[in-house]
């Protein structure tokens, strides 16, 4: 059971650099524009593959140049794309992100082809051979996530959900989840507990632990908290680094976390590995 299946989004990202993010009605003059591979699903699949996992991706792209680009990046990083459907009638997903002078960003996502993932692909027996984990996010319809999670449980694979962006989860999907991972905003939205400190992250993790077997709450500059059902929460402080950009940090964290768990490392060690990988990511200039 040494493989990860990632079901999720693929986005062609347009990255804008600006002194600050615009307020309502404001036009801001930016300084640069780059085009990148993106989508939480795609980024997490690549991150897991770089961390040493064997990864298969289930998703959809348009029959356009962005779609070809997205497929090529997955393939160049060793991700199996046999289950990525190419749709001729809908363009590939995309996002536009604005990064400010402090390295923080906000983004707008348009799902496009990601709303057309063929859930029947998830029922194919060959997909689940030697799979130990399924990794999901909330950038695709819940019906797809539920189908994927149901199949994963049927085949004995662990189910990890990065609940980003936050949304109400159905009871059937919750019942399938072995590990929930959220950031401070998502933890607040799902638990009702504000996360403005590491202690509050621990409190939110414990609260969410009543509904999930294990929970990880990433709290940005404060650090990360985690909790397994029936146990007290634990935490790690954020590492001291020179911040270049927070873009993609969460996806880097997820890839390393899941790859470490697949290697049967305990949750505490997997979180430490992921925390280290994310710290290195945010302090590194993008190529």
From TrEMBL:
The chain's coiled-coil residues are none
The record's Gene Ontology biological-process terms are: D-ribose metabolic process
Residue ranges annotated for the Carbohydrate kinase PfkB domain, each copy included: 1-286
Q: Does the keyword Transport apply?
A: no
Name the chain's protein.
Answer: Ribokinase
What organism, scientifically named, is this protein from? Yersinia frederiksenii
InterPro entries membership? PfkB_dom, Ribo/fructo_kinase, Ribokinase, Ribokinase-like
Query: What are the protein's UniProt keywords?
Result: ATP-binding, Carbohydrate metabolism, Kinase, Magnesium, Metal-binding, Nucleotide-binding, Potassium, Transferase
Single Gene Ontology MF annotation: ATP binding
Cited Gene3D superfamilies: 3.40.1190.20
- Encoding gene, per UniProt annotation: rbsK_2
At the top level of its lineage, which domain of life is listed? Bacteria
What broad class of enzyme is this?
A: transferase
Q: EC?
A: 2.7.1.15
């Amino acid at each position: 059971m040494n493989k990860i299946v990632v079901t999720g989004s693929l986005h062609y990202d347009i990255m804008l650099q600006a002194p600050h993010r615009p307020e309502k009605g404001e036009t801001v003059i930016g300084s640069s524009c780059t085009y990148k591979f993106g989508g939480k699903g795609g980024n997490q699949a690549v991150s897991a593959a770089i961390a040493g996992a064997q990864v298969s991706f289930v998703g959809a792209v348009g029959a356009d140049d962005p779609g070809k680009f997205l497929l090529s990046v997955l393939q160049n990083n060793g991700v199996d794309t046999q289950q990525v459907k190419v749709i001729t009638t809908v363009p590939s997903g995309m996002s536009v992100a604005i990064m400010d002078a402090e390295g923080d960003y906000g983004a707008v996502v348009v799902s496009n082809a990601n709303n057309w993932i063929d859930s029947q692909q998830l029922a194919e027996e060959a997909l689940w051979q030697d799979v130990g984990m399924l990794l999901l996010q909330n950038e695709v319809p819940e019906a797809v996530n539920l189908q994927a999670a149901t199949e994963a449980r049927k085949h004995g694979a662990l189910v990890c959900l990065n609940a980003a962006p936050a949304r109400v989860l159905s009871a059937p999907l919750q019942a399938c989840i072995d590990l929930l991972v959220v950031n401070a905003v998502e933890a607040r939205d799902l638990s009702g507990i504000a996360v403005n400190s590491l202690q509050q992250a621990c409190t939110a993790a414990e609260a969410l632990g009543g509904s999930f077997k294990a929970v990880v709450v990433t709290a940005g500059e404060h650090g990360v908290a985690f909790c397994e059902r029936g146990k007290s929460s634990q935490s790690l402080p954020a590492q001291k680094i020179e911040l270049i950009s927070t873009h993609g940090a969460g996806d880097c964290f997820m890839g390393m976390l899941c790859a470490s768990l697949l290697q049967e490392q305990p949750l505490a060690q997997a979180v430490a590995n992921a925390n280290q990988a994310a710290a290195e990511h945010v302090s590194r200039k993008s190529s």
